[in-house]
Amino acid sequence: MYDPFDLPRPREVQAGEYPVWDEALALVNRDLAALLPDHGPLRLLALPPWDDLDESEREHVYVALPDGRWHGSDLWHGSEATLTSALAAVAEAAQDTVMECLWQVWPVCAEHRIGMHTRQEDGRPVWWCAGGRGPGDPAHVRAAVGELDALHRPRRARRKRR
């Protein structure tokens, strides 16, 4: 156990340590860059196991902001079994970190201007929007996780050409 005053410091996870989470994080970072381009890419940080006596316990890996802040639970180690499960876990962790540390809703549906959540659809994680309040404004899938950049079109200055 750690003494409360001798807390371990997180370490940056090196590329290749958790290759499936690395790949998932790269896709989530595409979504982050599409909607919040002024924030740097997220990264993985790790803390040692809480109990030194339990050799079966693995380190705790978190999705963090570029400055090292994170919020929420660590990534479940079973989620690295497939890219689909890793992508869902990393997207949820990234959303927790961005929303709680930056106090900013992310990602936001461009159509309804409300926050979206991850959901599984057709065997892959997607960003899902609850839709508008009216019956003609139903819930919908905005994009697969990692594909928000394909939907985002940067605003261009609107000038008349002569």
Automatic annotation (TrEMBL):
<protein>
    <submittedName>
        <fullName>Uncharacterized protein</fullName>
    </submittedName>
</protein>
